[in-house]
Amino acid sequence: MESISSTLKEILIIEDNQSIISLLSRFFDLKKIPHTEATNGQNGLNLIRQKKFSVILLDINMPEFTGYDVIDALEKEGKLKDENIFIFTATSISESEESDLKKRGILGCIRKPIQINQLLTMIGA
Q1: What's the predicted TM-score (pTM) here?
Q2: Distance CA 71, CA 79 (A)
């Protein structure tokens, strides 16, 4: 099986916090990792439907259309397990919630504030 790092072409960041988007964008620019940004879940879902991304970094708690909504929509469409999704969360989620998300196809959970080294290890960059 190919690792994510050997196929890392473009990352999609779905995050409503502009400070986090800016931080990740600058970091990925320095590492020369192509990336696309969506500031809400609906726009992010539309991008996923249009293009294949190597990794999707998904904020789970966004107003109106949450990360859970993105996950539910992809699961209904039968596409969730085809995506390499890591969720971001500033709130605590229980081990059972995290386990349920992993059973559904989510690869991992990254806690905010984001530790860049942890993020790089998780996504294989």
Answers
A1: 0.89
A2: 9
